Every structure is written in structure tokens, then in C-alpha cells.
Amino acid sequence: MSETTTAGNNVPSDLEIAQRAVMKPIEEIAAAAGINPDALELYGPYKAKIDPTKLTVPAGAPTRVPGKVVLVSAMSPTPAGEGKSTTTVGLADSLARAGHSVMIALREPSLGPILGMKGGATGGGYSQVLPMDQINLHFTGDFHAITSANNALMALVDNHIFQGNELNIDPRRMTFKRVLDMNDRSLREVVIGLGGPAQGTPRQDGFDITVASEIMAVFCLATDLNDLRERLGRITFGYTYDRQPVTVADLGVQGALTMLLKDAIKPNLVQTVAGTPALVHGGPFANIAHGCNSLIATQTARSLVDIVVTEAGFGADLGAEKYMDIKSRVADVAPSAVVLVATVRALKMQGGVPKDRLTEPDVGALAAGVANLQRHIRNVEKFGIVPVVAVNKFATDTAEELDWLLQWCAAEGVQAAVADVWGRGGGGDGGDELAAKVAAAIDTPHDFRHLYPLDISVEDKIRTIVQEVYGADGVDFSVPALKRLAEIEKNGWSGMPVCMAKTQYSFSDDATRLGAPKGFTIHVRDLIPKTGAGFIVALTGAVMTMPGLPKVPAAMRMDVDDAGNPVGLF
After folding, report:
1. Domain that holds residue 468
2. In the annotation, is 422 catalytic?
3. How many structural domains are present in the chain?
4. Is 507 a catalytic residue?
5. Is residue 565 part of a domain?
6. Which one from 219, 314, 383, 477 is the annotated catalytic residue?
7. Catalytic site residue 314?
8. In angstroms, rounded to a whole number, what is the distance separating the alpha carbons of residues 116 and 237?
9. Per the domain annotation, does 550 fall within a domain?
10. pTM exceeds 0.85 for this model
11. CATH number at residue 178
12. End of a domain among 239, 261, 283?
């Protein structure tokens, strides 16, 4: 979905703005960020990979203190659009404009939503990372490598079973699926191995989208190549006939999977419209995975600059919670400031206004909808950080509505600023006020803490999240989920954090319950131990790990012109 603030047919699209932008050679962007040429691997004139092991510090240079992290999150998403990626890029550009040493760390887009309905993940308007068309399509091939590694594992597993099954793997108890970086509901449940003995062992299988793969999660949480290999080896892909877990290390193929990922694991360097360096790397969804870019990219950026602006997917109940309770436990990347993105349009929709009437001024609906933002604010504060609210401005917002929202934020005790970074760009003055408030927040002392300790039961971790973050009365576990809880305890996995798989549209597991609902229960239908990634996925409600396409996919308006340039890509 294009994140725009201006209406009218005369306004250039995100793609048109990106195509008109004058990019700097990527070597110039790297040099300005302090990246030595030996660490740079070029993928054409405007993209490069960075080999973190080859980054050097100039002789005599003082030891750099790792940069501080600004985490950008948001209110619960709506079809009205919030513009989290746009705000992330615009904020970083504005901080750079103010003289700060800054770099962006973002996730890579998935082809499934790009061809479906959500759109890309490169920002919008004059606050984009470039080259946006290449990033949104195949980029440097990282997702293809992850898909290949995932499917190579399952090919090797099924071959092992076919060739005699020395590990005694039970084909009925596989917990790992093949993946595809596409929304394809037809592949959710499949049967493989049909056609006779020579075609393998028939069994029920299925596909997840690549961004839901545990290999994606491992890829994004690994600290280096050796840690990647070790985490891949710890992946549990199924169970034996006597119900013992079987890992990649048992199969002995972690080395081969690491080989397939050895180049992909290096972060990708690109630039914004304003020339701010950006690392775009990894891409787990936040509704079905942990929703954060790679740890290697975040740490690489911290080694180079003073401020790293990163984002976590969807609302703060999902991406931000997982950043705090999963990613921040793996390494010292706890945020020094948190930004919550909100729009007048989305808040009015949370207040009950239909999408086709959001351009009509309605302070009453705004007042009804801020309950959603309020819950997100209070949730962030539970991690010991008072957030800054970024009001992403749309052209249809009235001065009365914007003033009311800023006054409401002040009454809630949080700093807030209107940001017009889509139309005026972070390189312009559209994000100056927001940047100033975020810079001040970075230097404000805080006491970061996780939501729960790791030594409590998985059931109690889930209960803590659903009650403290979602506002639910409690949690209901299905019979299969209860069996899985016992299995997790038996296998010694209960010390891992929890990754909730839940609809992004509501605090509840019912996508239709907007605002800040009360009086509901979260329904956990299954639990999947991700022993390589190091967390337990809790599947709730009807959330799918392989999305489907809408009735009219975005792909229907996409093409290339006679010169091979993309058309209709947002």
C-alpha cells in the first residue's frame, strides 16, 4: 500500500518519485558511513553487501561506543495506512539533516504482499530507500537463498526417510514445512510422495510463506556465521516414532544450509532519497514471526554510527513486544527511544469511521479512536520507556484534528510531533520537530526491562503477554496446545521466550474488534517450538502462516515499459 499524504491525480506515485531521484554511487554512501572498500561487495552501482568481518577502524581512531537504537513502532494497522516505514526513513533523514550520525536498519520486503495488497516496505513519497523497485522485487537474492535453504532441508529429510530412515523419523509428526515467498493459499495443505514407491513416502505436508520460516528467524537472530551454523543445527524439524525430537544436526546438514546462506547473511547497503545510508536485511513478518530486521544489520549499523533508526512490524503489540522480549535478549540492542506512529485517518477508523469517509473532519471519531493509541503507549511504558508519538500527516487532516491529537498526547504525558515526511521529505524540514523530540528522548534516562522473565512457564509467559499487552481477560488453550505445552516442558524448551502469532488488526485474535477491546479471551490453537531461533510460536485465532491473495491482487496493475522499467509498483 502506498503511504501517501497528498490526494489528487497530479501527485507523483512512490515509484515515480523513486525513479526521478538522483542516487549517489553506493561507494560514496559507504565512504560517508565509514565503511572501508574492502568490506564492500557491489551488486551494481546502487546496492552492495557489507562483510562485517572486514570492517576496519582507521589507525589511531578512538574506540567507537556502539550507536543507540531508536525503535519505530505504531498503533494497530488499518486499511487507512499508518506510514511506519515512511516515518522511519523520514525520521532518519531528519536526524541526519540535524547533524547526527545516523543509519537506518529495515527489513526486506516479501514478494507475497507486494503482489497481493499490502505493498512494499521501502517507505513512500520523499522518504524512501532506493532503488525501491529492486528492493521490493528480487533485491540481492537473500529471500531466494533462505527459501532454497529451507526447501533443501526438507528435500534432505524426505530423502533420508526414503533411503532407509536411519533416524527413525515419523513422517506423520513433521513440524517443519516447505516455503515459498508468495501468497498462495492452495499450498497450505498438500500431499507429497504420491505416484508409487519410487516417488518417496506419501505424507501430508504444506507450505508456509518464506518470511514465516524458522530459517528466516534464525537468519535474523544469528550474531555471525558460526552462530548461524549452530542455530541451524538446533532446528527441530520433526519427531521419531518414539516421539523424540529430531534436529538438523542429527541429520548432519547444518553445514550445507550455512553454505547456501553464506552470502545472504551479509547486510545490504542502500540509500534514502536524501542520501542517508540504510541497511535492508532479513524480513520476518510480525504477525506470524518476530518482525525485526537481522541482528547482524542492527549491530553493523551500531558499529558505524551514533544513532540507528529501526522498525518492528505492525503495531507495538506485535513487532515492538517481540523486539523487546526476543531480539533484545539475544544481544544488547535495547532501544534508547521508541516512536509510535499514528495518523488521524487511522485513529478515526479505530473510532468507527468507514474508510470511504475518513477525509471528513471528525474530532469525535478521533476522540473515540485514541483508545487504541493509548493502550500502545501504556504498553511501551511497561518496558521502561516513554514513547514519542509521530503523527504522520495526510493532506486531508485538519488543523483542528491535529491540534486535538497533540493536546491529547500532552495530557497523556508523552511527547508528540506532526511529521510531514511523505510530501516534504526527511531531507527537507518535514520531520525536523519529530527529530528534535526523538533526539531529546534518546538522551533521557530510562530503565529498560523485559515484560517477563525466562524462568517462568510458557503458559505464564503467554498469559502475561495477552493480559498485559493485549488487555485480554485470559487465554484459552486448545487440547493440542495443552499437549504441546507438556511436550515443551518434557524436552526442556520452556526457558525460551514466546513469539505470538496473532492478527495485526486487533489487540484480540478477532480482526474485526478495533479500538481497545475489553472482555475477550485469546485462543491458542497450537504451539510450535522453534529451537533454532530460540522461541516458541503460539498460534492464535485464525492467523495463517501462508497468506492468500485478495480478489484483485496488486499484481493486476503491474507491468514493465518498453525499456524494462517497472510500472504500477505502488
Report:
1. 458-540
2. yes
3. 3
4. no
5. no
6. 314
7. yes
8. 29
9. no
10. yes
11. 3.30.1510.10
12. 261
